[in-house]
Amino acid sequence: MGSINILDCTSIRELREKLIDTIEGHLRAHPDRQRREADPLDAFHFAKARSFVFPAGRVARSLEEFAWHLSRITVHSLFYHVFVARLTPERRDRDFSVWIEEELGLKELAEEIRRLDPNPRTLEELRRDLDVRTVQEVLERHGIDPEKPIITQVSRFDTMKDPVGVIQAFREVRRREVCQLVLAGGGASDDPESQQVLARVREEAEEHPDIHVLELPPESDLEVNAIQRASTVIVQKSLREGFGLTVTEAMWKGKPVVAGARPRELRSPNSACPMLADGRFDRDKVAGIGS
């Protein structure tokens, strides 16, 4: 039952039917469990709730005003618009997406907001993800052009992440596509060679105006989140990889991913299926998916 995603449901009726189907399916598979009973003192007591919805006193007429109010509304208001409103019969969608698409005509942004999965986030983290102004401010702070396609690798500056190889692949892509590269990361306390790798990366970049090498401190979650959301393609040219957290984060954000086949099990339903390259990094894949 814990795997049922409330955001897949467009009404209370549909959610109720999914819960019932899940329980009945379990009983069919395990008929012996029909006879199990809880202690009378531990019986489940159903409750009912009545919601009172009233205006929050905030009105947005433009995307800029929407972002400004979004950073100031209470988490209770955010919860209503993301979760509760979706299940009401007359809405069947998130308030935010409907308004942005129908009133502002920004279908692409509306779709991106629909893809946001609030389940692994707190409401405050979700608010930050929705704040389009935050993304714009981060890009401006680091001199990244929001109008030009962005290829990004987020990783520490380590030879095993092959940032120099990413720059070399980018130069080939750049001959065919107008785009920019962001290498965002930092060093690691257990990696004394990180500064040497960073210096080599900057040397390889040769102050190219479309190559942004960002040395970020450990507490740069906001910057990383914003850059990933603004990116057109995420790459991870690792020569050796563990879990691949940054790739997983990008896929949860619905971003196309081109990665070295390490590990091979990286898959996510929210993303374009990641392109995995064996051995020599397939630079044509980067160019193709970015076009």
* Elements, N to C (H/E): HHHHHHHEHEHEHEHEEH
Number of helices: 12
The name CATH uses for the topology of the largest domain is Rossmann fold
What is the domain tally?
2
Order of strands, widest sheet: 3-2-1-4-5-6
CATH class of the largest domain: Alpha Beta
- In angstroms, what is the radius of gyration? 23 Å
Distance between the termini: 41 Å
Q: How much helicity do the residues have?
A: 40-55%
Q: Determine the strand fraction and express it as a percent band.
A: 5-15%
Mean pLDDT: 79
Structural class, please? Answer: alpha/beta
Write the CATH architecture name of the largest domain: 3-Layer(aba) Sandwich
Number of strands: 6
Apparent shape: globular
Low-confidence parts, pLDDT < 50 over ≥5 residues? 267-274, 278-282
What does the main sheet amount to?
Answer: 6 strands, parallel
Q: How would you describe the overall organization of this protein?
A:
- This protein is of the alpha/beta class.
- It has two domains: 1-26 and 58-130, no CATH class; 145-290, Rossmann fold (3-Layer(aba) Sandwich), CATH 3.40.50.2000.
- It contains twelve helices and six strands.
- It has helices at 12-29, 63-70, 75-84, 95-102, 107-115, 123-130, 132-141, 163-174, 194-205, 221-230, 245-252, 283-290; strands spanning 150-154, 180-185, 211-215, 233-236, 257-260, 275-277.
- It has a six-stranded parallel sheet, sandwiched between helices.
- It is globular, with a radius of gyration of 23 Å.
- The two termini are 41 Å apart.
- Mean pLDDT is 79; it is low at 267-274 and 278-282.
